[in-house]
Amino acid sequence: EVQLVESGGGLVQPGGSLRLSCAASGFIFSNYWMYWVRQAPGKGLEWVSAISSDSTTYYRDSVKGRFTIFRDNAKNTLYLQMNSLKPEDAAMYYCAAATYYTWANFPYRGQGTQVTVSS
Predict the structure, then answer these.
(1) CA pair distance 110, 81, nearest whole angstrom
(2) What is the pLDDT of residues 42-67, one digit of tens each?
C-alpha cells in the first residue's frame, strides 16, 4: 500500500521559514517523480514544485528562489524548504507521487500538512 505522510507544517510569521517532510512507503521511491502541491481555503489544488528521479527540480514562478525541493532516496523522504514565506503561501500542503511528469494528475497523494503564514 502506498503511503505518503507529510509533516513540518505550522504557524510562521511572514518572512519566516519552514521545512516540510514527506515520508514515503509502499513503492520504489527512487523511481518516482515527486511533487508538492497545495490548496488554500476556497481554491483549487495548485502545483508548487516537482523533482524527478534524478533530482531535476521544477517550481511554479511564485515560489522560485524561495522554495527548494529535494529528496533523500536512501530515506524514502521528500522535503520542501520554504523561506521568505508570504501570507499567500498559506495552504494545506500535500506531497504527491507519479511515475511521470504532471501538473495535475497525481495517482498518489498524502493527507497534507497545514501551513499558516500570519503575524
Answers:
(1) 18
(2) 999 999 999 999 999 999 999 999 99
Identify the residue whose cell numbers are 525541493: 69
pLDDT one-digit tens code per residue, 68-85: 999 999 999 999 999 999
Q: For residue 64, what pLDDT is reported?
A: 98
Query: Could you give the CA distance from residue 8 to residue 19 in angstroms, rounded to a whole number?
Result: 6
Query: What phi and psi, each to the nearest 5 degrees, are found at residue 79?
Result: -130, 160
Q: How many residues are recorded in the chain?
A: 119
3-state secondary structure the chain: CCEEEEECCEEECCCCCEEEEEEEECCCHHHCEEEEEEECCCCCCEEEEEECCCCCEEECHHHCCCEEEEEECCCCEEEEEECCCCHHHCEEEEEEEECCCCCCCCCEECCCEEEEECC
Q: How far is CA 111 from the centre of its chain?
A: 12
